[in-house]
Amino acid sequence: MKMTVDFEECLKDSPRFRAALEEVEGDVAELELKLDKLVKLCIAMIDTGKAFCVANKQFMNGIRDLAQYSSNDAVVETSLTKFSDSLQEMINFHTILFDQTQRSIKAQLQNFVKEDLRKFKDAKKQFEKVSEEKENALVKNAQVQRNKQHEVEEATNILTATRKCFRHIALDYVLQINVLQSKRRSEILKSMLSFMYAHLAFFHQGYDLFSELGPYMKDLGAQLDRLVVDAAKEKREMEQKHSTIQQKDFSSDDSKLEYNVDAANGIVMEGYLFKRASNAFKTWNRRWFSIQNNQLVYQKKFKDNPTVVVEDLRLCTVKHCEDIERRFCFEVVSPTKSCMLQADSEKLRQAWIKAVQTSIATAYREKGDESEKLDKKSSPSTGSLDSGNESKDKLLKGESALQRVQCIPGNASCCDCGLADPRWASINLGITLCIECSGIHRSLGVHFSKVRSLTLDTWEPELLKLMCELGNDVMNRVYEANVEKMGIKKPQPGQRQEKEAYIRAKYVERKFVDKYSISSSPPEQEKQIVSKSCEENRLSISKLGPSEQVRASPQSSVKSNDSGIQQSSDDGRESLPSTVSANSLYEPETERQDSSVFLDSQHLNPGLQLYRASYEKNLPKMAEALAHGADVNWANSEEDKATPLIQAVLGGSLVTCEFLLQNGANVNQRDVQGRGPLHHATVLGHTGQVCLFLKRGANQHATDEEGKDPLSIAVEAANADIVTLLRLARMNEEMRESEGLYGQPGDETYQDIFRDFSQMASNNPEKLNRFQQDSQKF
């Protein structure tokens, strides 16, 4: 050990020894100041840390309160609870850290200052005292005269004793100094090392805690990213709704904003009315009234239980009140009492009176209506394209695509080889195939046959309906018309090479199609007749605005919709015949009545036959035209270069459009007016077709010769369903472009909405006809 002060120098009491003492004493004094300051700072830090823990605990309690408040949101409640528990653990770790800091810094250093430095100070005092006594003895010894022997001996004895005492105390003092210098190093380092180990333990505990919490936080971060995207999407939707509502003109009928109808909850009408009290003052109070469950009730606040004004509307009457000073009053009179009410306007008063009268009438015939509804549900409607299939759709609601398609005549066996129970289909041909024939069809290319599994793939409703409209019997009458005449036998299951040759000859070379059923050019007279019959509708539509076009659509001559329902018009013109039903597709050609618009089909070229059959929704004729080489995108130069797909839109059939699209129709090909299929479907209010074209990649930004795109047409016509679809598709397109998701279908919300519209268009088209029905009323 290196000594701070040398013991030998101590015995000499040399100036070097005194200088070393002076240096040590100054150093110890400064050390005491530094240690006192450090202890005080440590105490302040511990007090501040404890205050921090208290504040942190209060903050953590606030998080727990927020978690309990968010009990209806499982994600928020779980996350906040987990975070508050983790913060509580961190508070405990902080408390432990401050306790260890108090023991390592405050306690150890304070003990060093109080014990060791105090001993040093006591030793210093004794040394200074004996040092002074030694100096006095030396001075006294030097002053004694030589002739005074007694004083000399006394001074010499005192000096000897004093020197001996000095040496003893000086040696103890030097020992104390050297021990102190050595001990202060160990005490300081020991306390600081203990303090740092406390921090190490604190951060290790925190690291372990958040390592366990890390995966949960990562998952929550991913959820939060989705929530941010959903929130942005909801914000855009709400902004669009806000913009749409803001663009509406409510000035003509503000009264509709003053009451609501909630049929789902049995509320016929609800809104604010003034009610005259029955007290002596006859005061008027504004209350929220509603007609529900054949009763008239009102509430003052939402949480209040409704007060029943009229128990049974069948026992009351309603009438105007013009004999009082207040305007817009009416009275509801029951056998026991009467209630005077006041609306905010004359329109509102009429609406309430009508609602009460309607409820009274409804209450009387409620039971009759229920039985009538049951009768209607049990019997299918007549005159519909799917009248023969409505009950079948309900019966097969829970069955698979395989069962539905195999129910069609001829589909229970392979279209090409006759193998039973086929599990594959060609969606553009509308036929069923065995697995071996489906492989051969795949090798032909998708421009000839698009193969899909009936059990493994997901089927869109319009595609499934297309399969049910055609079938093996129908297509074989087209593609195998001359098989027997040519003496060719169909291949049997297992004959792979024969199958390949037969299928290629049948669909690619079309050797078995009756080539003489359609000639190359139609007579000029027939072209004029057909052009006139179709042009009447087209000209009447093209000259009107979008809102008028909806009301003046082909429904004026043939009321049609996405389900294929048609009715004769009352304007005196010859109406177009209804599309044949699914069952009639399998009757012999000679027994099926051809449309008058087709005239004589054997004089038509394939393109014109496809054009006309598309309007007539005659899928067998369309398939026959394609088999004869018709261009699916053939444009009629005499009718504004309209295409078969545009004719299918005018005809109003969703299945016809799907058939053309599956066979390569260009969804963006436009006529001379610059309008494509999406334009025409929007003008006519065919929501199902708009949904189909958007799914098939229609360009909704294209404008016609008037500079209008489909969205502006739909907004002008106030068709909410089509506006919703167009804006949703546009928003989805913008999102995919901004996120670089080119070629991807879009998010789940977008797909779900379009899936719902597709289901309604194919299975419940009447739900999408509300716009056409409303427009017809006016």
Automatic annotation (TrEMBL):
<feature type="repeat" description="ANK">
    <location>
        <begin position="673"/>
        <end position="705"/>
    </location>
</feature>
<keyword id="KW-0967">Endosome</keyword>
<dbReference type="Pfam" id="PF01412">
    <property type="entry name" value="ArfGap"/>
</dbReference>
<keyword id="KW-1003">Cell membrane</keyword>
<feature type="compositionally biased region" description="Polar residues">
    <location>
        <begin position="379"/>
        <end position="388"/>
    </location>
</feature>
<keyword id="KW-0677">Repeat</keyword>
<dbReference type="InterPro" id="IPR001849">
    <property type="entry name" value="PH_domain"/>
</dbReference>
<feature type="repeat" description="ANK">
    <location>
        <begin position="640"/>
        <end position="672"/>
    </location>
</feature>
<dbReference type="InterPro" id="IPR011993">
    <property type="entry name" value="PH-like_dom_sf"/>
</dbReference>
<feature type="domain" description="Arf-GAP">
    <location>
        <begin position="399"/>
        <end position="520"/>
    </location>
</feature>
<dbReference type="InterPro" id="IPR004148">
    <property type="entry name" value="BAR_dom"/>
</dbReference>
<dbReference type="Pfam" id="PF00169">
    <property type="entry name" value="PH"/>
</dbReference>
<keyword id="KW-0472">Membrane</keyword>
<keyword id="KW-0343">GTPase activation</keyword>
<protein>
    <recommendedName>
        <fullName>Arf-GAP with coiled-coil, ANK repeat and PH domain-containing protein</fullName>
    </recommendedName>
</protein>
<feature type="coiled-coil region">
    <location>
        <begin position="117"/>
        <end position="147"/>
    </location>
</feature>
<dbReference type="Pfam" id="PF12796">
    <property type="entry name" value="Ank_2"/>
</dbReference>
<feature type="domain" description="PH">
    <location>
        <begin position="266"/>
        <end position="361"/>
    </location>
</feature>
<keyword id="KW-0040">ANK repeat</keyword>
<dbReference type="InterPro" id="IPR037278">
    <property type="entry name" value="ARFGAP/RecO"/>
</dbReference>
<keyword id="KW-0175">Coiled coil</keyword>
<feature type="coiled-coil region">
    <location>
        <begin position="217"/>
        <end position="248"/>
    </location>
</feature>
<dbReference type="Pfam" id="PF16746">
    <property type="entry name" value="BAR_3"/>
</dbReference>
<dbReference type="InterPro" id="IPR036770">
    <property type="entry name" value="Ankyrin_rpt-contain_sf"/>
</dbReference>
<dbReference type="GO" id="GO:0010008">
    <property type="term" value="C:endosome membrane"/>
</dbReference>
<comment type="function">
    <text>GTPase-activating protein for the ADP ribosylation factor family.</text>
</comment>
<feature type="compositionally biased region" description="Polar residues">
    <location>
        <begin position="550"/>
        <end position="569"/>
    </location>
</feature>
<dbReference type="InterPro" id="IPR002110">
    <property type="entry name" value="Ankyrin_rpt"/>
</dbReference>
<dbReference type="GO" id="GO:0005096">
    <property type="term" value="F:GTPase activator activity"/>
</dbReference>
<dbReference type="GO" id="GO:0008270">
    <property type="term" value="F:zinc ion binding"/>
</dbReference>
<dbReference type="InterPro" id="IPR045258">
    <property type="entry name" value="ACAP1/2/3-like"/>
</dbReference>
<feature type="region of interest" description="Disordered">
    <location>
        <begin position="541"/>
        <end position="599"/>
    </location>
</feature>
<dbReference type="InterPro" id="IPR001164">
    <property type="entry name" value="ArfGAP_dom"/>
</dbReference>
<dbReference type="InterPro" id="IPR027267">
    <property type="entry name" value="AH/BAR_dom_sf"/>
</dbReference>
<feature type="region of interest" description="Disordered">
    <location>
        <begin position="371"/>
        <end position="392"/>
    </location>
</feature>
<keyword id="KW-0862">Zinc</keyword>
<keyword id="KW-0479">Metal-binding</keyword>
<dbReference type="GO" id="GO:0005886">
    <property type="term" value="C:plasma membrane"/>
</dbReference>
<dbReference type="InterPro" id="IPR038508">
    <property type="entry name" value="ArfGAP_dom_sf"/>
</dbReference>
<keyword id="KW-0863">Zinc-finger</keyword>
